[in-house]
Every structure is written in structure tokens, then in C-alpha cells.
Amino acid sequence: MAPLWSLILVAASVSFPGIQVTDTSHPRSSALHHLTRKLLQKYHKEVRPVHNRSEATTVYLDLFVHAVLDVDVQNQKLKTSVWYREVWDDEFLSWNTSMFDDIRELSLPLSAVWAPDIVINEFVDIERSPDLPYVYVNSSGTIKNTKPIQVVSACSLETYAFPFDIQNCSLTFNSILHTVEDIDLAFLRSQEDIKHDKKTFLNDSEWELLSVPSTYHILQNSAGDFAQIQFNVVIRRRPLVYVVSLLIPSIFLMLVDLGSFYLPPNCRARIVFKTGVLVGYTVFRVNMSDEIPRSAVSTPLIGIFFTVCMAFLVLSLSKSILLIKFLHDERRSGQARPLLCLQGDTDADGTRMDPKVQLAEITESPIRQKHQVQSGTLKEVWSQLQTISDYVRAQEQADQQEIERLARLYRFDRLLFRSYIIVLGLYIITLCSLWALWSSL
């Protein structure tokens, strides 16, 4: 349709030479091209856009946290998706709107204009982010540069309170070369609006955005003073899945182990029971290692308590094994010590007498035999009574020592039981306190 209209205009100009005909099909588009050529004709993007070089260019920053993509505890890295906006004034890119068909704003290539060298200090990796090659410029020379960024930043991630952990990671923006005398930074919105703005955050992941507090300060070093703006991304983990899959099963397993203390310490079934519980601890620990984040900086509290409970279990199991072995050795030694009086007759010295000697003595004279039999019988009875008394005394001492050892083992078992209750109580109280602190934020 446009070429046909042009042909009609040309024919009209040829048929009627006195008539001036102009193409008014796209007047605004022509003004836009003319304005673009006028702005960029003598523009030098290498020079900071101020007429007075002693004046600083103020860059206004704004940040919207869109999503938390990954929290790498092992490598201490946080991956977030943010919308980042820069606004500054370019004194060489202003125009009078009345001269250009009331055009108040236009887009220009970012590569064709001067842009501040603002970087993120914690930036550690390059991620795929959509490249927006244009910026908007209004008639007063204000440039708006908005771009989405996937930021992989270094962050000190603490997992001590897992799964009720709260992470605070900073994103610090500053100019890499220009001091505060050349480029100053400021907030595009109020700090309160930035802190509580969660409209663009995707709130359906494992992490929840709490706030984005921000601060402005001057970094002083040997190269000069540099303006910095720091945004702190405060996030917290949603713990429900870990409470169901880790915390509650671990408490149940500890309660089962605690119930094993009600079995007698010298019962062999207790060893079998505790061995089964130890196998359960081991399997659960292997499965838990895949769920708990690994970090060389801090160890989760749940892992510490679980290791302590395993140590109590091993101590109790070792004590039961030693007790059973001790009782078994005592019974064997008791069976190997029969009464000496049941093994035959002994002489006064305690040695066993030969039956042939006894028979030869019987054939002696009756009078002598009578006196010797009476004397030998008394001595034999006295020797046997003394032997029985020594044996009973030794047996009582052995029994007393066994009772004392059993009492010590029973006291140690009660000590383990009470310590186990204290540790389990501390574990539950600590988890409840962390959960209450998590819920209060």
C-alpha cells in the first residue's frame, strides 16, 4: 500500500508542477531516525558524558530478586536470578521534544553510548543470561538500562542450624575503575521498598525470600575512594520435608535405643537388640548423608547429635559384651573348683592318702590301730573342715568381687542411660528452639 501511495504522489507532482507534495505516511518514524542520527553523529562513548569533568556522574541502582536457583554449600556458592536496573544522566543525549515530533523517549544500542563500569564483587562464575542490547533514553538525557542476570556469587553459607538455616548473601556493586569523584552510586527506590519487595520472587522453591536490606558506603583503599552499594539477600530454607524424612525418624530411632536400657545388662538378648539398633543407625546415617549438605566450614547440629547417640550406643553395647564375657568366665572358673572334700581322704597336711596305705594300717595291732584310727579320724575331720572353710571363704570373696564388679557395671549403665536422656532432651529442645526462631522471622 505504501509503494502505491508513493507512485500516486509522484504522478501528482508530475501532472501538477506547481503543487508541493510531501510524504506524510510515517512522519514520526522519520523524526525518530533524524533524532537518532543527530544524537549519535558527534557522540563519543569513550568519554564520561558531562560538560564539567569535575562533576560526578550519579548512577542509580535497583535490584529485584526473581528466584533462588541453587545453594551450593560444599563450594560456598549461591546462584540467583535477579533483575538489575541502572539509571544515569547523559548530558550529551538530550533534545527538545517540540523539534522532533514530541518524541520523549527512544531506544539506542547499548554499545553506542557510554555505560558505567559497574560490577558485582562476589561474582565468581559466568551463567547464561539474556543479552538486552538496547537502553532507553528520554529527552532530558536519562538512560535506563534494565537487564536480567543469573548471578553465581561467593557466599559464606552456614549449615549449623540445618534444616532451619537462614542464609545471608551479599551482592556488592561498585565501579571497577572510577572513584567516587567520577562515579557515585545511589538508590533508585527507597531502601525500605527494596527490602520488603517480594512481588517478582518465585515463591515455590525450597528457599523463601525474607528481605533484601541494602546499604551505601565508601570503600577506601590505596587507589582511591570508591562508592559501593551492597544488597543482602536473606533467605531461609523450608524445613518440612526434612522434618518428616530426617528429624522425626532420628528421634524414633533414639527412643528405641533408649528403650533397650530397660533390658537387664547381663542379658544376651540385649546385645542382639542393640546390634540391630546399631545396624539401623548405620543405614539411617548413610541415607542421611545424602540429604544433609556437606560443608568444610560447619557441621549440621543434627549430624553432631546423631554421632553422639551412636557413641552412646557403642559404649552401651561394649559394656554389655564385657559383662557377658565376665559372667561367662566366672561360671567356668566356678565349675573348675569342686570341693576338695569330695575328691577323697586327705592327710593332715592336706595331701590325698593312698588307699593301699590305709588298708595296710588296718592290719596292724588292734590297740595301736584303735588309737591311730581315733587320732587319724579327728585330724582328717579337722583337715576337711578347714578345707571347706577356706573354700567357702574364698568363694565368698569371689562372689563379693563379682557383686562389686556387677554393681560398677550397673552404675555405669545407669550413667549411660541418664546421659542418653540428657542428650536426647537437649536434641529435642534445640530443634524446637531453632524451629521457633525460624518461625519468628
Quick recap:
The protein has helices at 2-15, 27-41, 191-196, 240-259, 268-291, 301-335, 355-362, 366-440, and strands at 57-72, 77-89, 105-109, 118-120, 123-125, 134-138, 142-154, 166-175, 183-187, 207-211, 214-221, 224-237.
Q: Can you give a write-up of this model?
A:
The chain contains eight helices and twelve strands. The protein is rod-shaped. With 441 residues, it is an alpha+beta fold. Residues 1-25, 335-352 and 354-360 have low confidence and may be disordered. α4 (240-259) runs antiparallel to α8 (366-440). The strands form two sheets. Strands 1, 2, 3, 5, 6, 7 and 9 form a seven-stranded mixed beta sheet that branches. Strands 4, 8, 10, 11 and 12 form a five-stranded antiparallel beta sheet that branches. 45% of the residues lie in helices and 23% in strands. The protein has helices at residues 2-15, 27-41, 191-196, 240-259, 268-291, 301-335, 355-362, 366-440, and strands at residues 57-72, 77-89, 105-109, 118-120, 123-125, 134-138, 142-154, 166-175, 183-187, 207-211, 214-221, 224-237.
Descriptive tags:
441 residues; seven-stranded mixed sheet; rod-shaped; 8 helices; alpha+beta; five-stranded antiparallel sheet
Radius of gyration from the CA trace?
47 Å
Helix content: 40-55%
Approximate shape: rod-shaped
Number of helices: 8
> Residue-averaged pLDDT, rounded?
79
pLDDT below 50 for ≥5 consecutive residues: which ranges? 1-25, 335-352, 354-360
Sketch the major β-sheet: 7 strands, mixed
What is the subunit arrangement here?
Answer: single chain
Distance between the termini: 64 Å
Q: What string, H for helix and E for strand, traces the elements in order?
A: HHEEEEEEEEEHEEEHHHHH
Task: Work out the strand percent.
Answer: 15-25%
Structural class: alpha+beta
Number of E-state strands? 12
